[in-house]
Amino acid sequence: MCGIVGYIGDKNAYEIVINGLRRLEYRGYDSSGIALYNSELNVCKTKGKVEKLVKKAKKNISLEANIGIGHTRWATHGEPNNVNAHPLISNNGSLVIVHNGIIENYATIKNELIDKGYNFKSETDTEVLVNLIEYVQETENVKLGKAVQLALSQVFGAYAIAVFDKKKPDEIVVARLGSPLAIGIGEGEMFIGSDVTPFLDFTRKVIYLDEGQVGVLRNHKETKFYEISNDSIISPNIETLELELSEIEKGGFDHFMLKEIHEQPKAIIDTLRGRLKLNKGIIKLSGIDNNLNKFTSANKITIIGCGTSWHAGLVGEYIFEKISRIPVEVEYASEFRYRDPIINPNDIVIAISQSGETADTLAAMKLAKEKGAFVFGICNVVGSSITRESNSGTYTHAGPEIGVASTKAFTTQITVLYLMALKIGKAKGIISNNVFNKYLTELNLIPEKIEKSLSFNNKIEEIADQIKDSTNCLYLGRGFNFPVALEGALKLKEISYIHAEGYPAAEMKHGPIALIDENMPTVVIATAKGHYEKVVSNIREIQSRKGKIIAIITKGDKDVKEIADYYIEIPETIESLTPLLTTIPLQLLSYHIAVKLGKNVDQPRNLAKSVTVE
Ligand code: G6P
Fold first, then answer.
1. Contact, 365 vs 340, CB < 8 A?
2. Angle 474-478-482 from CA coordinates, rounded to 5°
3. What are phi and psi of 98, to 5 degrees?
4. Which run of H or of E encompasses 553?
């Protein structure tokens, strides 16, 4: 969480840093701030979003500068206010820093610095770090790069930082451990971002700083990189960016979330491209091809993830069990990492993550590796930490997902899981060629069937109007669609702040039924081949208690259509592929409810897209 941006070069640093912050706002938006240097240090910070910062900065500081850093915050230490907002300045007024992450031993260091005469204005761990750097710089009489390196070797936790010294405003020192940091290389200028979007308009050359590295970035001068631990000089890889600017813009939609929901047909085509080869009747997936034996002989697969990615993992459990006959456990990464999980030789751990930066998932993967598991990553963001930490993996190719509520990441993660399970199932001889080919044909048709499901947008908007004032909502599904019910409820909670719970339909009678009355709508996924009769009975049980029903049904359904208050028809497909279709109306329903309630759909309160803290 938190986004950091920096620039040093001949251009106007203010414009670059502010535009970069706008693009990184998905990472946190409690407060924002900027520091610029032009014969004096100008810092402007505010509680709230970047647009508020823009107004304040225009009134209060000089915006002319060739060096600057900025921050958009998701508060961890200290409430979001002007004082705790970044950038933070050291006691002598010379060093200024932005930080994404958490310094875990900040309290001890703070007390030591207080004993040495330092004082602190904010409650942040970051102010402790900038003063530790200042202390090291002064007591060791070293340059800023070295001071950062020495200070960081005293801290525990996670960080991506950018810091400069107003006494030497021709360099910005950056470092990372556990939080992402990308460096854009221009002609005589350097850009810094928590991801590459802040500098996409200016350069295609990028360095993804590795764990435990520090860089001294200068304009028109040589840039240097070191290992924090042993001072050795390193030459990081310079990669070429393929991301296009249009991919991170709204493209005519009111919100990123709506754009991303509508992008799903294309996103899934991209996920399948070059992998699902219908004519040849094969699936090519290099991460699996290169490790096929490991997968075919796996005793158990443990899937780890958080939030929506965890829900994709739950769908994966049903898929792998049905198609590849491998036992699967799905774990919240945050629980897995603090248990003493039993990992045996021949076990595989699959980590699912859109951002590739989720701290808990990353830590859980590291633990799994230590215990000898083969760790396979399913990620969207190219070059992210989780992709680098995996033994092997597959990209989802969903394209940038900017709306905080995950949509296309979910459906593309599930698509990858189908490809994997089918490939393994076929290699193990679990599924026949006929069944395999039937799956390939149906998977290939999914994008156009999603398109069809999206065409019910107006009808879903009308349903949203009817239920938007509810304070609670229940989501029910069975089998492959139980995780979709969980995901539907999560979407509603995240962006509309209506309390919602997902439940396996049959479990309703063990608790949630007590809540049902005319004020609590229930969204039921009742696909034609998904334990249909049983779900119909559940619907009747809800109705006899005056509960309103919104049903997701398969085209051609007769029974549920008659009894539901509202229904949305999805096209027919193989039952195990239905999550890719049933999810769509649930995403749109949450979206329209949130819009009608006037909520900030893309940046819901208290949430962040990329959770790089525990
Ligand atoms: C946050 C996001 C969710 C996401 C979860 C896991 O909570 O708001 O949308 O599902 O993190 O993120 P990951 O990037 O690992 O999929």
1. no
2. 65
3. -125, 145
4. strand 549-554
For 211, the token pair is 């764990």
**Measured between alpha carbons, how far is 20 from 192 in angstroms, rounded to an integer?**
9
Predicted pLDDT at 570: 95
Q: What residues are annotated to the active site? A: 2, 609
Question: Three-state secondary structure along 309-348?
Answer: HHHHHHHHHHHHHHHHCCCEEEEEHHHHCCCCCCCCCCEE
Q: Report residue 408 as tokens.
A: 């296309």
Residues in the chain: 614
Q: 24-43 burial, b if ≥16 CB within 10 A, otherwise e?
A: bbbbbbbbbbbbbbbeebbb
pLDDT of the residue at 452: 95
Give me the pLDDT at residue 222, please. 85
Residue 305 · residue 361 · CB < 8 Å:
yes
pLDDT of the residue at 105: 95
**8 Å CB contact between 353 and 378:** yes
Beta carbons of 475 and 526 less than 8 angstroms apart = no
How far, in Å, CA of 548 to CA of 433, rounded?
44
How high is the pLDDT of residue 395? 96
Query: How many CB atoms are closer than 10 A to CB 597?
Result: 15
Name the residue of 256, 261, 311, 354 to mutate for ligand 1: max ligand atoms within 8 A of Cβ. 354
- The encoded tokens of residue 413 equal 């993660």
DSSP percent split of the chain into helix, strand, coil, nearest 5: 40, 25, 35
Q: Whose CA is nearest to atom 4 of ligand 1?
A: 307
**Does residue 131 have its Cβ closer than 6 Å to ligand 1?**
no
Give the pair of three-digit tokens for residue 470: 């509810």
Long-range CB contact pairs, 180-183, < 8 A, 24+: 180/100, 180/208, 180/357, 180/384, 180/385, 180/610, 180/612, 181/4, 181/208, 181/209, 182/206, 182/207, 182/208, 182/209, 183/207, 183/208, 183/209, 183/215, 183/217
Element (H, E) at 359: helix 359-370
What is the structure's pLDDT at 499?
Answer: 97
pLDDT of the residue at 244:
85
Tell me the backbone φ, ψ of residue 159, rounded to 5 degrees: -160, 145
Q: Which two tokens stand for residue 10?
A: 């001949």
Cα-based angle 77, 109, 357 (whole degrees, multiple of 5): 45
| 234 Cβ neighbours under 8 A, 6+ residues apart | 210, 213, 225, 226, 227
Ligand 1 pocket: which of 27, 195, 306, 495 to mutate (most atoms within 8 A of CB): 306
| Average pLDDT per consecutive 10 residues, the chain (614 residues; last block may be shorter) | 93 97 90 96 94 96 96 82 93 97 94 97 95 97 96 94 97 94 95 95 94 93 90 92 86 94 97 95 95 95 98 98 96 94 91 95 94 96 89 95 96 98 96 96 97 96 96 96 98 97 92 90 92 88 92 94 94 96 98 97 89 78
